[in-house]
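ugh ok fine here u go
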Amino acid sequence: WLDATLLAMLVLLGWVSAVLRFIFPAPTTADGWKLWGWTYDQWFDVQFGCLCILGLGVLIHVMLHWNWVCSVITAQILKTRQRIDDGMQTIYGVGLLIVLLHLILAGIIAAMFSVVKPPM
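structure:
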């Protein structure tokens, strides 16, 4: 079910993104345009929601296959036969998630301080 949901969200995200890119005019000139009763901003909210659901699904998918991920890293990249115990796998997974979330947050903070507002 998870894989089917991920596929459906990927297709929906691709479709909504194509609608926003090719059907609507540029966001700065899309005021007043509607598709099936929804404005550009509403379609943009749907796109962001699809992206969030897809991201959550990918996170759950990786969590469910974390044992396999650790095994591949150990055998293929580190070239060792020693298996990492489940407790260490969990610590590595949580650590990786914390690092990724901090990188995303750092990018958002950098964008907040770098954005240039138009002159008044």
